[in-house]
Amino acid sequence: MPLGTLDRSPPPFFKQGLSALSKLFLCSALSIFLMVADARWGITGPLRSALVTALHPLQWISLQPGRALDSIREHFDSLSDAQTAAQESRKELTRQLQRSGQVEQLTLENRQLRQLLDLRERLGTPAQAAEVIYEAADPYSYKVVIDKGLVAGIAMGSPVIDATGVIGQVTRVHPLVSEVTLITDRELSIPVLNPRNGMRSVAYGEPANGGLELRFMASNADIQEGDLLTTSGVDGIYPAGLPVARVTQIVRRAESTFARIYCQPLAQVAAARHLLILQPIKGQLPPPPAAEPPKKAATKSKGAKP
């Protein structure tokens, strides 16, 4: 049989109904009708409400993962902000504590400077202020270095005091700085006077106790705990009447001729920063009178008669 005579139409079992173009026109017309009817009479409102109500649980469930992620992100963001705020608070607290310490330090220095100025006005001895730069490197000595030297007119042996008492003595002078040996150094001694009874003695540095010791004092010497010791002024260095120390302990032994007398310095020896450098009193004393030339014995002339 020739192929051209075959029937190519689909069998009735596969009948598709309306054509695609007809379906397009039908759906378009139905859509236009529904839009006009909904605009005029709102016939799809209940249907839309029912559909929204039915889909609400699904919408809520679908939104939960995003909300959980947002909550986790907000939690970590708030935690990070809280940590940052805590760090800033600690930094600010540290700055405030530092400022408070600086204010206290400035207040202390201001009070010390005022006391030094008042003391300088009361003293009749020429004086100039100096500041401690650092302590000497030798661990076995009690010395500090100040910021004044030969250029400022500092002389060897100048007494050094603060607002409460004697600190020490200038023992080495350089052009720009000087070295001060503190009264607690074992190599330094200072003549002292007990104003209560006028007894003179010599106080030596005692580093072991951080104070002074009166040596070679008889066991029966009239000295009591609490006695004030001042400079005697007999050494030609320290002006008389400067507070030095106060007697804190007296040890009298029957087998020893001398008593052990320990004293506590009145000055802030280990903590002083601002000092007064006094001129040694030997530089203020008038020069000693010139010695009279020896009288020559009268010689008899050869021609004179006895």
Structure notes:
With 306 residues, this protein is an alpha+beta fold. It has 2 domains: 25-98, no CATH class; 127-283, Thrombin, subunit H, CATH 2.40.10. 33% of the residues lie in helices and 25% in strands. It contains 2 helices and 12 strands; from the N terminus they run ααββββββββββββ. A 6-stranded antiparallel barrel has the order 1-2-5-4-3-12. A 6-stranded antiparallel β-barrel has the order 6-7-8-11-10-9. A hairpin with a 4-residue loop joins strand 3 (159-161) and strand 4 (166-173). The longest helix has 78 residues, at 45-122. It is rod-shaped. The chain starts with 19 loop residues before the first helix and ends in a 28-residue tail after the last strand. 19% of the residues are buried.
Q: In percent, how helical is the residue content?
A: 25-40%
Q: What is the name of the CATH architecture of the largest domain?
A: Beta Barrel
Q: What structural class should be given to the helix and strand makeup?
A: alpha+beta
Number of domains: 2
Secondary structure blueprint with pairings:
Elements: H1 20-41, H2 45-122, E1 127-135, E2 143-146, E3 159-161, E4 166-173, E5 178-182, E6 189-194, E7 199-206, E8 211-218, E9 228-231, E10 243-251, E11 258-265, E12 274-278
List keywords for this structure.
rod-shaped; six-stranded antiparallel barrel; Thrombin, subunit H; 2 domains; disordered C terminus; six-stranded antiparallel β-barrel; alpha+beta; 306 residues; 2 helices
